[in-house]
Write a structure and sequence with these properties.
Elements: H1 8-26, H2 35-42, H3 53-64, H4 86-98, H5 109-126, E1 133-137, H6 140-157, H7 163-166, E2 175-179, H8 184-192, E3 201-203, H9 213-221, E4 227-232, H10 244-254, E5 257-261, E6 286-290, E7 302-306, H11 309-316, H12 346-380, E8 385-387, E9 395-400, H13 409-422, E10 428-432, E11 435-441, H14 449-468
Helix pairs in contact: 1-3, 4-12, 5-12, 6-8, 6-11, 9-10, 12-14, 13-14
The structure holds pyridoxal-5'-phosphate.
Length: 469
């Protein structure tokens, strides 16, 4: 057999991957080796000679396995991380095996078409305007960047300035309004786009991080030039959303571009019990969201959604004589994203939407919100455990220590460390309003009520041991 016709590495990888997932799904503890251990395990001199694919894959699994964080298991609450659902993973394997360059319709007809179809499904599921365009990007970070690039293009174009041709030097200044508790990646996008992370007008938020509509109205009334307003659906620590129904009509009347960072929170639209929290969000001009969070696709998968398709395309389109442009009624995937060559993210998105269906996605969101509420209540029932904000969605924060002194950062840090060392569940920390908190995200399809109960018991046990020291 010719070496490049030896597919045994692929079969080996599939078998070992299935074995990993089956094991991790039922593991009672998931201790994970650290970075230094992994460097030692994976390191060595640069390979001089090639070797056998099957052996390489077997060896890779043996070396890497101890350092694979169990984020696909049911007791992972560390960050907003979906499960990498088996069906999404399977579609992703095919995506890699097919080796399609999802740049244009001729290079990849199926990959281009699957994006067009999945884009329509996404808009329908999220209740966004059917004519909006969707770029399939790596995640919400790049989705924020793409949406804000379209925003920058459009608000300047309306003043007669062509930012794509002439850049920002000499352009009319663009005002950027942003909530005080926006996600850090929105600031990254602002930096990439030449706006500067500090050159923004920060809008005051309430105790849970919601933008105050009155403060927004006041700031907006002071803007006379081109303006972009950045809001969010789903604050990273508290899960709350900005009051879109109050903000959006004001932005529209003012001619301001309204962007929504809805990395996970936008999916609350699919859940009958939670949809009202996002009322009015459909009136915005652009939305960034993720597939690899609540939709459970494998990494990397995000969506940049823009109401004004022409503005989206003007900001992203790549044209060259050797690249065949899409024909009438066709959609080139590269026209909506920063990359030319990339993987065909539409396949896993298409597969996961079919896997869960509209009702399954809504049920998953509802279940996660109920689990978050249950865990928050069960944990804060313990003396010395304080719930920082009421649970609105799937995210909540706790601090540990005497009730009188909720700023007991050391105790909270010690409990988080103990939980991570015990490795029954994984939960991390964050800084919120000047204090250190344990932050819990419930987003994985692998998480159910039983996993939540085991986790509550593990956290309380860790806390009691820390307190008794
Ligand atoms: C996760 C998240 C992001 C960043 O998304 P990535 O998928 O990690 O690029 C941005 N905003 C919010 C609110 C998020 O939760």
């Amino acid at each position: 057999m010719r070496e490049d016709n030896d597919y045994s590495a692929m079969a080996t990888a599939a078998a070992l991957a299935i074995n990993y997932r089956a094991h991790i799904a039922v593991a009672s503890r998931t201790p994970t080796a650290d970075y230094a251990t992994m460097i030692a395990a994976l390191g060595g001199p640069t390979p001089e000679q090639g070797s056998d694919g099957h052996a390489i894959i077997t060896d890779l699994v043996a070396r890497a396995a101890p350092g694979i964080r169990a984020s696909t298991a049911g007791r992972f609450f560390g960050w907003v991380i979906g499960q990498s659902h088996p069906t999404g993973v399977a579609a992703d394997w095919l995506t890699a095996a097919w080796g399609q360059n999802a740049g244009n319709v001729v290079a990849a007809p199926a990959a281009s078409a699957v994006e067009a179809v999945a884009a329509g499904w996404l808009l329908d599921l999220l209740g966004l305007p059917a004519q909006a365009s969707v770029g399939f990007v790596t995640g919400a970070t790049v989705a924020n960047f793409v949406c804000l690039a379209a925003a920058r293009n459009e608000v300047l174009r309306r003043t007669g300035w062509d930012v794509e041709a002439d850049g920002l030097f000499g352009a009319p200044p663009v005002a950027v309004l942003i909530g005080a508790d926006a996600h850090s990646t929105v600031y990254s996008a602002l930096r990439y786009l030449g706006f500067g992370a500090k050159r923004v007008r920060t809008i005051a938020t309430d105790a849970a991080g919601r933008m105050k509509a009155s403060a927004f109205a006041e700031a907006l009334s002071e803007q006379t030039g081109p303006t972009i307003a950045i809001t969010q659906a789903g604050q990273i620590n508290t899960g709350v959303s900005d009051p879109f129904a109050e903000i959006a009509p004001r932005a529209r009347d003012h001619g301001t571009w309204l962007h929504v960072d809805g990395a996970f929170g936008l999916w609350a639209r699919t859940c009958a019990e939670k949809a009202a929290l996002l009322a009015g969000v459909e009136q915005a001009d652009s939305w960034a969201t993720d597939g690899h969070k609540w939709l459970q696709t494998p990494y990397d998968c995000g969506f940049a959604i823009v109401r004004n398709e022409a503005a989206h395309r003007r900001a992203m389109e790549i044209v060259a004589s050797y690249l065949p442009g899409a024909g009438a009624g066709e959609r080139d995937p590269s026209a909506y994203v920063p990359e030319l060559s990339r993987r065909a993210r539409g396949f896993a998105t298409w597969a996961m939407i079919r896997q869960l269906g509209r009702s399954g996605i809504g049920d998953l969101v509802g279940r996660h919100c109920r689990i978050a509420a249950f865990m928050a209540a069960a944990l804060s029932a313990e003396d010395g455990v304080t719930l920082v904000c009421p649970v609105e969605l799937n995210q909540f924060m706790l601090c540990f220590g005497p009730e009188a002194d909720i700023q007991s950062d050391d105790m909270t840090r010690a409990v988080i460390d103990q939980v991570q060392t015990d490795a029954i569940a994984f939960i991390g920390g964050a800084s919120w309003r000047g204090m250190w908190v344990m932050r819990v995200s419930v987003t994985s399809a692998a998480t159910d009520g039983a996993e939540a109960e085991t986790t509550v018991a593990a956290v309380l046990d860790a806390f009691r041991r820390v307190r008794a020291r």
